[in-house]
Amino acid sequence: MKKVAMTGNVAVANAMRQINPDVCAAYPITPSTEIMQQFSTFVANGQVDTELVTVESEHSAMSACIGAAAAGGRVMNATSANGLALMWEMLYIAAGNRLPIVLSCVNRALSAPINIHCDHSDSMGARDSGWIQLYAENAQEAYDNTIQAVRIGEHPDLHLPVMSCMDGFIISHSIENLELLDDRQVGDFVGPYKGTAYPLLDLANPVTYGALHLQDYYIESRKQLHEAHKRAKNIVIEVGREYGKLSGRSYGLFETYKMDDAEIGIVALNSAAGTAKVVVDEFRAKGVKAGLLKPRLFRPFPYLEIADALKGLKALCVLDRADSFGAAGGPLFIEVRSALYDLPKRPVAINKIFGLGGRDLGLDDLRKVFEELVTLLDKGQAKSLYEYITVRE
Amino acid sequence: MSKPKGWKDLPEGGLIKEAGNAEKYNTGAWRSDRPIWIKENCIQCMFCWVFCPDAAITVDKNGERGEFDYLHCKGCGICALECPSKVKSIVMMSEAEGAKPDALEKAKAAALKMAEEKKAVKA
């Protein structure tokens, strides 16, 4: 174990070096480019055994990953925003074929207007593709999630692709202190690849991937995927616990911060949760019972556990760094509010869309949100359910 | 075909673990045109066997062409188009007409008519 100072991207590239995948197919896009750029240095230096395939688009990158995973290899990749959008068709095929590919998604806003900075419109759009999605607050979590993603996706009860997300630029390009495990520790933790029992390169036992399923079999195949997602939750917990024994950093489905006796709370993904913790502390110092819940596993969404963790609140605000245009709220809000529905006594829930295209979320923005939640304690009725903050009128 | 599998028994991801099992799937069911083979006109050139995009031309142990495999023929008509005998030995008919008992007689008549028309054009 050693302490280092690295950007989020370099931390993820080092996780990949330690995992030593069989195949990576890469096509550069900001802000994920640095992951593969750094990783290609490891390939050139002979520090990994990986076959690095340089392709002509992200659609081809994911296609190459699918082929390599079906052939029987451990496969990784990285992308952002429009790159992920170009992979769209293949994301569903990776999940449908049950191939445990690990993809680092460095969250960036989708065009148009063209923008290279952080929001979650890319990975949120892919939330129904059948991939497992993990979110990270900082470089340490992005590194840790990358290593765990391999074990989660390849678990014999799952065989699912995993998208490991972190905030573009805010985390991907900021240098932070973090701890790297020893190479051997990571190698032992991920173990030999066993992501498919039927590799295409097993020539003595030929198989067909991706065959036609019409009215006769398609729905059975989708039901299998549905059931696999139901099993994922416990596997994420199991892997997170084992990783905790190894690293001293345990992981679960989500993190709670000062939630035990909280009356008001914020739910936020990724780096915004770090900012929110500071404001929670400020309000706690003033005697306000404030708390935070930061989901880590977004797909499958652990709705029962999240409802249970939020049930003591009187008012909460879900922060979404992506809009779901025309819906009843941002993607995270829709999930959280739906999770709360079955509680006998539900907290008042409001939604703020923030930070699109990398717009900064400052402490003052969050102070205003907590102040509004405090007023809701008396009023019980929000003036607006779903609105933008960090936006100019 | 055997009883279709439920989701619990289906191989993960709809994987097909057995090679060459397309034979068990009756893909000829959606054919709308049917080729009729006229044995007496056939010169055994095997063009139809070469050109068939499926494997719907059966061949016996002596290497001779036999009857169509109608469980897998999709009625594309390529065999009839490529058939080089002077009087065609493969004629396309609608599936409804081709399934009737008099189909072979009608096919023979159609083959002769086509040959005469071709001759007339040349003359």
Describe this structure in words.
- The complex is a heterodimer of chains A (393) and B (123).
- Chain A has helices spanning 8-19, 33-44, 58-71, 81-86, 88-96, 121-125, 139-154, 183-190, 218-247, 271-285, 303-310, 331-340, 363-379, and strands at 2-7, 23-26, 51-54, 75-79, 102-107, 132-135, 162-167, 175-180, 254-257, 264-267, 290-295, 297-299, 315-320, 348-353, 386-388.
- By secondary structure, chain A is an alpha/beta fold.
- Chain A has 2 domains: 2-247, Rossmann fold (3-Layer(aba) Sandwich), CATH 3.40.50; 254-388, Rossmann fold (3-Layer(aba) Sandwich).
- In chain A, strand 6 (132-135), helix 7 and strand 7 (162-167) form a beta-alpha-beta unit.
- In chain A, helix 10 (271-285) crosses helix 13 and helix 11 (303-310) crosses helix 12.
- Chain B is built from 4 helices and 4 strands, in the order βαββαβαα.
- A two-stranded antiparallel ribbon of chain B has the order 1-4. Chain B has a two-stranded antiparallel ribbon with strand order 2-3.
- The longest helix of chain B is centred in the last third of the chain and has 20 residues, at 103-122.
- The model of chain B has no long low-confidence stretch (mean pLDDT 94).
- Classes of the chains: A alpha/beta (393), B alpha+beta (123).
- The interface between A and B is medium-sized, with 21 and 12 residues.
